[in-house]
Amino acid sequence: MLPLTLFHLFLGLSVSLLGAFASDHQEETVKGFFGRNGTSQSTHTNNWAVLVCTSRYWFNYRHMSNALSMYRTVKRLGIPDSNIILMLADDASCNARNKFPGSVYANPGRHLDLYGENVEVDYRGYEVTVENLIRVLTGRVEPSVPRSKRLLTDEHSNIFVYMAGHGGNEFLKFQDNEEISAFDIADAFEQMYQKKRYNEIFFMVDTCQANSLYSKLYSPNILATGSSQVGENSYSHSSDKDLGVAVIDAYTHYVLELMEGINKTSQSTMQDLFSSIDPNKINSHPGVRSDLFRRPLDKTLITDFFGGVSQIEVVDDEEGVEEEAGLVGGNGKDSVSSTAPAQASFAIPERRASHSKRHIEPVSNTSTTSEAKELWGWVGSSTRAWGAVALFGGLVGWVRMRS
């Protein structure tokens, strides 16, 4: 009985040591596999946009074109209508003064109609209120509200919140009837954080004294920017003589000017975006608040907020090196190789990325899953092989002891 007991002890010790080794190696390998992109990469799995025009009346035409221009941009970069909440306080396209009925333009040349068959307005006219905006952000909507008018985000969602209208120090007017304060916005974002409704938020405001609207934010993982400091106005960029009104605001115009040179696979960062705005051109001083944001701006891609999410693999043909990258595509469905359309809206040349040495191959979630399965399978087979060796060695030792 003594040799048999020693055999059991030896076998148990061998299996325990091999199991510990395999477990440590497995954990290290899995962490390396899923941490290939580094800590500067976003961990979000879906993108949403909330675009708000808060002004009524024909002379505020530019505020509607601001929101519609942002709407066109995020759609072009891969965020589908199902993930966009568009709120327009007025419908300039149907105004009796509109010389071009059913159309909205953002430049005097009228090269691109921003308002057409593909525009889905979720809240229009008197539906655009402070209460409805806060309900949308926090998810506290009535049961009768349809799915298309809800912000169905989770803790893995990146949200782009854009607001344009008339404002002042720590407030933004809604239809000359009510105001939302910087405290209201800060508390709404905090409710979203407590309810795990976002991964990161990018908050952009184009209004007079816009920077004051993000001054009260206190929730984590929020990046904010505004068009003007406290005491400064936010100015329009250009007017259309046929329409008789300004057609876009300066800050939004120059943001969109940069965005027109970006496609779904762009590596441009938020730092590039903020650095591109010249105070001399917009006649005000834009601001950025990043103390609540956990990632460096020069490592945060613009498409982390303006684009859809897709996993792709960048392959170097000459060196045969593959890198896993979380670049943007069409919400995980559209082709990631598409480029930006012709620059008719803002009349600037497109800066296309050079791919002379690289090609981009889409990688679906099933591909990542299968690779992980292979990894786990390898770990399991290695453990079984070492266990067999230990068992064989134990049996040999036991036979010698009996002889």
Task: Describe the 3D structure.
This protein is α/β, with parallel strands linked by helices and 403 residues long. It has helices spanning 2-34, 61-76, 130-138, 182-194, 250-259, 270-275, 279-282, 303-306, 365-402; strands spanning 46-53, 84-88, 123-124, 157-164, 167-168, 171-174, 178-181, 200-206, 222-226, 236-240, 245-249, 287-289, 312-316, 322-325, 358-362. The strands form four sheets. The chain has a seven-stranded mixed β-sheet. A three-stranded antiparallel β-sheet has the order 5-6-7. β5 (167-168) and β6 form a beta hairpin. 38% of the residues are buried. Mean pLDDT is 79; it is low at 30-38 and 319-376.
Please outline what is shown here.
By secondary structure, this protein is α/β, with parallel strands linked by helices.
Task: Set down the secondary structure blueprint.
Layout: H1 2-34, E1 46-53, H2 61-76, E2 84-88, E3 123-124, H3 130-138, E4 157-164, E5 167-168, E6 171-174, E7 178-181, H4 182-194, E8 200-206, E9 222-226, E10 236-240, E11 245-249, H5 250-259, H6 270-275, H7 279-282, E12 287-289, H8 303-306, E13 312-316, E14 322-325, E15 358-362, H9 365-402
Parallel strand pairs: 1-2, 1-4, 2-3, 4-8, 8-9
Antiparallel strand pairs: 5-6, 6-7, 9-12, 10-11, 13-14, 13-15
